[in-house]
Design a protein that fits this description.
With about 550 residues, the chain is an alpha+beta fold. The chain contains 13 helices and 30 strands. Strands 1, 2, 6, 7, 10, 13, 15, 16 and 17 form a 9-stranded mixed β-sheet that branches. Helix 3 links the parallel strand 20 and strand 21.
């Protein structure tokens, strides 16, 4: 054909195809009809039987504080005749109330038998499980033990996760850098742990039988359940206090000058322990170790264990005691967890291993009761001022009184938030609700809260961090992430904004959202409002009696 005829033919072909696709009366190609591939369970459920291989050895090198890397060598003995071993990385972590095991930080994983690499594969459904193929037994040969080597990489910046290692300290959590054999309750798996620490570091943990040779520290053989419940704080700047009643406080800090505690403040920490025992009627532990980090370099934490707790406080908490009154509630809260949550726990929240999902329905008891008693113990002991706790109660009551999310979501339903939300920021928190079953850290708010007036929360730079659903700012179109740059024609400051609201006249804001500058008028005339408690009547009231000390102390 000539070129012109080729072009016409192409146009005709394209037109015919378009008509065929557009016309519903023409025959359509037959789509395939796939059938679902059945999911076959290849990881066994846990049974209450001892692991037959024997005691695992877990050796961790935690000396690389420069790179934030933990190097792990774990030896898992196997019973004679074993051809396949399934090792699991913990997924449902105690105290996290959800599937939070940081599997992404487990890297460079290898399995060896007799010093030679063996084939392994990740389970395609339960990706925390690893199937390890073992060589056959022959004339007394075959696998006697499997050696797993891998790295746990601590996040180096907060965008990657919680930082657990700095050049001054570390927080070693065993479940983040160990594996365990499938098919057995974790209380039926034995393990012998050891850690090599950086030179000059002192380590603290609730594990028994500590012994040291150089920088290598080992502990008695224990169960995998107890191991996971016994984390480590270690650091180059360390001090220990005896708080009485078989309770100790181990403190690591960014700098040595931060580890100073005046006698009257130490007395309040001792009183916290006495008030807790008086409140619950007995000790739930043989001994208890507070692990405390005074730091803003390592990530924040408040995590309960039966015989210890992990606690991060602001660096100057001890040396500027009064200024950081808001920051210490976590200590009383986590101590109360030794009874409520560890010694006794809602049945569905207890699991035989770290694979079976937790059912969080009664988390409002587990955490809610603990928050209540943590507040009471903190006030009774003087760990926090009574006025601080009354302010906290008022803040809670005021927030819930105006919380739009209560119209559709019960408190019990918020107990599932750890499973599907994992504490991620939400666009409209007041409507979505969060983990409202408890209010740990409810006073740890260094921003400007105008929730009960303008209906926003702002950081120190005027950036909107929260917006009250159907509040004045929300109705004017202000959302999270916007930044207030001017108030009534003047450059933004917190004092100018508060003064403008206090004048009880409409406020005009200039708001930056992305690359745009918007003039936003807000017709709010209610003035500044914050919730507060005031005693009705005279004499001692119920809250006075509740928060009063119950243990007589010497002057």
């Amino acid at each position: 054909m000539k070129p012109t005829m080729l072009k016409l033919a192409s146009v005709a072909t394209a037109l015919a195809l378009a008509l065929a696709l557009a016309s519903p009366t023409l025959a359509q190609p037959q789509l395939s009809a796939p059938v679902a591939t059945p999911i076959v369970q290849t990881v066994p459920d846990a049974a209450d039987t001892p692991y037959p291989g024997g005691t695992m050895r877990l050796e961790i090198d935690a000396t690389d504080v420069q790179r934030g890397v933990y190097r792990v060598r774990q030896t898992v003995p196997v019973a004679p005749g074993t051809r396949r071993l399934i090792l699991q990385f913990p997924r449902w972590l105690p105290g996290n109330h959800g599937p939070r095991g940081p599997l992404a930080e487990l890297v460079d994983l290898r399995f060896l038998v007799g010093g030679k690499p063996v084939v392994w594969r990740r389970d395609p459904v339960e990706v925390n499980a690893f199937h390890v193929e073992l060589p056959p037994q022959s004339s007394g040969g075959g696998a006697r033990e499997v050696v797993a080597t891998f790295l746990h990489t601590s996040p180096l910046q907060t965008s990657e996760g919680r930082i657990t290692m700095t050049q001054e300290m570390l927080n070693l959590q065993w479940e983040k850098m160990s594996l365990y054999p499938a098919g057995h309750y974790v209380r039926q798996i034995r393990v012998k742990p050891s850690v090599t620490f950086p030179a000059g570091f002192t380590a603290a943990t609730a594990l028994d039988g500590q012994s040291a040779r150089g920088g290598r520290v080992s502990w008695d053989e224990t169960t995998y359940e107890i191991l996971v419940d016994s984390p480590i704080f270690a650091g180059k700047h360390y001090r220990k206090w005896d708080l009485g009643n078989r309770v100790s406080m181990h403190v690591v800090a960014d700098t040595p000058d931060l580890i100073a505690l005046r006698p009257e403040h130490e007395a309040k920490l001792r009183a916290m322990v006495s008030e807790a025992i008086a409140a619950f009627g007995s000790r739930a532990f043989d001994r208890y170790e507070f692990l405390v980090a005074l730091t803003d370099r390592m990530g924040g934490i408040g995590l309960e264990h039966h015989r210890s707790s992990e606690n991060q406080l602001e660096p100057r908490n001890f040396v500027e005691w009064d200024a950081f009154d808001w920051d210490r509630n976590v200590l009383a809260h986590e101590l109360a967890h030794s009874w409520d949550g560890k010694f006794r726990r809602p049945a569905a929240l207890w699991t035989p291993d770290y694979r079976e999902p937790m059912r969080d329905t009664l988390l409002w008891v587990y955490e809610g009761q603990t928050q209540f008693w943590g507040n009471v113990i903190a006030a009774r002991s003087g760990l926090q001022r009574k006025e601080t706790l009354l302010g906290a109660i008022a803040t809670q009551a005021g927030a819930y009184a105006e919380l739009p999310g209560r119209g559709w979501r019960s408190v019990e339903d918020t107990t599932y938030d750890p499973v599907f939300a994992a504490r991620k920021p939400k666009p409209y928190q007041t409507l979505a609700r969060g983990e409202d079953y408890y209010n740990e850290g409810m006073l740890v708010d260094k921003s400007l809260s105008l929730t009960h007036s303008l209906g926003v929360g702002l950081d120190k730079d005027g950036k909107v961090t929260s917006t009250q659903w159907n509040g004045p700012a929300f109705n004017a179109g202000i959302v999270n992430g916007a930044k207030i740059v001017a108030v009534n024609g003047e450059t933004y400051t917190t004092d100018r904004l508060k003064a403008a609201i206090a004048a009880k006249r409409p406020v005009e804001l200039i708001v930056q959202r992305g690359e745009r500058m918007l003039t936003v008028p807000i017709d709010y005339r209610g003035g500044l409002r914050w919730p507060w408690l005031e005693k009705v009547g005279s004499g001692e009231g119920g809250l006075d009696r509740l928060l009063a000390p119950k243990v007589t102390r010497a002057n």
